[in-house]
Amino acid sequence: MKKILSVAIPCYNSQDYMRHCVETLLSGGDKVEILIIDDGSKDDTLKIAKELEKANPGIVRAIHQENKGHGGAVMTGIREATAPYFKVVDSDDWVGVEAFHHILQLLDGFITTGKEVDLLLANYIYDKVGSRRKKVIRYTHALPTDQVIGWDHARHFKKGQYILMHSAIYRTQVLRDSGLDLPEHTFYVDNLFVYKPLPYVKKLYYTDTDLYHYFIGREDQSVNEKVMISRIDQQIRVNKMMLDGTDLRKVEDAHLRKYMYNYAEIITVISSILLIKSGTPENLAKKKELFAWLKENHNYFYKKFMHGIFGPALCLHTHFGRKCQILCYNAANRFFGFS
């Protein structure tokens, strides 16, 4: 049977939770290609991957590589993918089985009718440790449901309603055509993965289906606030690469251009807030450097940013300014889920 969807699972020391992730994806049967990418793990990740490959021939592929980081593992997945659609699922996350069946039916329909979309979006769930009520990110009101549309049919995306790796399934060729090249040994590249190909998306489809369970709450997770501050240079690198990689002035569709500006804006807010929250002279100097870099290299973005809500608030050093910065932090937290 021809594969419909390639799913890349970047794994680094994932022995304790990767089986559950793979098992939920195995519910897709022969329609799915599951690429377990062992990124130089030191534990039994590769052993488990090979066991799963042996037990599920033709569906699971165990791929070993020297450690390249999350971005390097995702790029390996894109290169190795054979299906027309591609998704990344992190090894500590999983998909809802019934929702996954619905997604595969949709993708199969696009392929068999010749009406392929470039981007399929579904909901994702913040599955936070200790939280009874799970937060679901939907795109209702921002996008029509169950329709093939162009960006001109998109409406306003609220803060925190951004398209993340968790919600996105790209047509594989779109990722390749976009020139996507994620940096190795760098965290937070999932923002680049989603952002860079957007101008190449001409047709998209949103289904109000709770597909992706985003597990959050481990102390060592990359989105833990303390961990993010310790890796702030990588956050800034991704922030700059997003702006360097796409000239927003050349994005033809006004709806997409506005969305991409807002996405880059919230990433810049996150970078700035983390630098402020760390409180060290070194990081406060990095915030000044970031703003100076924006002004010199992306003046179009910088002017809009400084005339908006967030830019001026992040430059205030008064008691009122601190209150404004807390509001910025809360907006960033709603987007990224750190706490």
Automatic annotation (TrEMBL):
It holds the Pfam family Glycos_transf_2. The keyword Lipid metabolism does not apply. It comes from Butyrivibrio fibrisolvens. Keywords: Glycosyltransferase, Transferase. Gene3D superfamilies: Spore Coat Polysaccharide Biosynthesis Protein SpsA, Chain A. GO terms for molecular function: glycosyltransferase activity. Signal peptide: none annotated. It comes from the Bacteria. Residues 6-108 form the Glycosyltransferase 2-like domain. This is Glycosyltransferase involved in cell wall bisynthesis.
